[in-house]
Hints:
With about 80 residues, this protein is mainly alpha-helical. It has helices at about 1-10, 20-25, 30-45, 55-60. The model has no long low-confidence stretch (mean pLDDT about 90).
Amino acid sequence: IKKEFEYFWDAYNKKTEKNKCFKKWQTLKKYEKDKISNVLGDYVKSTPDVQYRKNPLKWLNGECWDDEIQKPVVKPKYNGIL
C-alpha cells in the first residue's frame, strides 16, 4: 500500500497533508485505486499550475477521480496578422 501511495503522492505533486492522505488511501478499494491510476495523469496535465490543483486530500475525499477532466484552454498566439 505504501508504494502505491507514494506513486500517487509523487504524481499528484501537491504536497499537503500527507499523513491524512495516506490514511484516506488505506481506506480506498482496489477499483478506486485503479480508477485513480487511470485518470491521475490527465488530471495533473489539466492543472499544470499546481496552485489551481485541488489539495490531494480534498481530491481523494471528494472522489474527484470520477469528475470530468477539463482540458486547459490554449489561447492562439497573436502573429500580427488579422
